[in-house]
């Protein structure tokens, strides 16, 4: 089964490819770049599931039938900031979508917030849609806390600031395989993988569109 990922983000493509490999499903993750690039989408729904659905349907329109699209929308919700940056996580510091600037802004916004109030959670919604398959969504949440200063050189986005619950290291200090076992995206993928296996139990190769 080939899933076109509604994203040109190389980090996301690599992360999903690793999730697929670990799940053992006969699935190939393909970047939207292989389909001519990701269409421009105004992510204005105000929800993770709404934005993910818009992206999935936008890419599906550019693909030949039959095709499958996987889309995600994810973000960091900080308790002390009333859920910000949330669905605006990718553009927190402005429309240019600069991850380094986003991280710097979050550090500054939390500068006066004490350690005991630095709770946060990464949220992810995955949307699966096919040419003749209805939209289905799957959610994953990873709770944790935020450091005062970034740590670690791996990962991307807000990973250097986020310490998942039960850990002392940030996502950016973990090997990719370890992060992928804990992340919000991994938790949503687990739900999606379970669903994919129910489509044709014991005959996963027939997931080919």
Question: What do you see in this structure?
Answer:
The chain is an alpha/beta fold and 209 residues long. It has a single domain, classed as Maf protein (Alpha-Beta Complex). 29% of the residues lie in helices and 23% in strands. The chain is built from 5 helices and 6 strands. The protein has helices at 10-23, 48-60, 99-109, 176-182, 184-199; strands at residues 2-5, 28-31, 68-78, 119-130, 133-146, 162-164. The protein has a 6-stranded mixed sheet. It starts with a strand and ends in a 10-residue tail after the last helix.
Compute the separation of the termini in Å: 7 Å
CATH architecture: Alpha-Beta Complex
**What proportion of the residues form beta strands (DSSP E)?**
15-25%
Order of helices and strands: EHEHEHEEEHH
Count of structural domains: 1
Q: Class in CATH?
A: Alpha Beta
Topology:
Elements (H helix, E strand, L loop, with lengths): L1 E4 L4 H14 L4 E4 L16 H13 L7 E11 L20 H11 L9 E12 L2 E14 L15 E3 L11 H7 L1 H16 L10
Parallel strand pairs: 1-2, 1-3
Antiparallel strand pairs: 3-4, 4-5, 5-6
